[in-house]
Task: structure prediction
Amino acid sequence: QLFFLVLNPPVIDRFFIKHFFGVLVSTKLFVGSLPWSVNDDKLKEAFEEHGNVVSAKVVTDRTTGRSRGFGFVEMGSADDAKKAIKALNDSELGGRNIVVNEAKSRN
Result:
């Protein structure tokens, strides 16, 4: 099987790397249990202490414009993402304990 993977590198995907080597390859993080008072800027500010933040977006309801209580943060590197998860998962932001983990793909 290894011979096949070496000859066909596209077969080696993110899932394979993470689950067989235990490495976090994604830099996009899911952030849940956000208080409604947190906006994109506050979310970015909370993660900047733990590395380079490429983007931070709080997901909002299309009709009301109100926060849906979760968002996504893209970190500059996998190491920054790991640091942010370790430091911020189950930490307090705006009076609530937030959930931070690797974002799952939509597939």
About this structure: The longest helix spans residues 78-88. The CA atoms of residues 18 and 24 lie 6 Å apart.
